[in-house]
Amino acid sequence: MMRHKEEFDADWAVEAYKFESVVLEDGIIQIPEISQFAHRPVEVFIVFKQPDTRRVDAQKRQTMTQFLSKWTGFLKGVDPDDVKLEYLQEKYE
After folding, report:
1. Domains in the chain: how many in total?
2. Residue 18: inside a domain, yes or no?
3. What average pLDDT does range 32-57 have in this prediction?
4. Residue 80 lies in domain
5. Is 0.90 surpassed by the pTM of this model?
6. In DSSP terms, which residues pair with 14 in a beta bridge?
7. Which carries the bigger pLDDT value, residue 44 or residue 7?
8. Residue 17 burial class via C-beta count within 10 angstroms: exposed 0-12, middle 13-18, buried 19 and up
9. In a domain, 37, yes or no
10. Which side of the chain, N or C, has fewer Cβ within a 10 Å radius?
11. How far apart are CA 7 and CA 42, in angstroms?
12. How far apart are CA 22 and CA 36, in angstroms?
């Protein structure tokens, strides 16, 4: 659980707690023990996490051998430094 506190003036302060939980089938959200705040008003803000689309499925991952067999020799006979120099010379002519 993360804690964040902001003070805007001497009479008013905001404390925010961040935690991750799961909504149960009956709609209940279990939160960490915060009994020290019993009987105090709170504001609840719910953010639904989206699946991480950047992750690659294990089935779609290539082995190192597959990667090397696909890309070996792609720049064969070409010096990358010469290609970079040529590109920069053309760019800044």
Report:
1. 1
2. yes
3. 81
4. 2-51+61-91
5. no
6. 6
7. 44
8. middle
9. yes
10. C
11. 17
12. 23
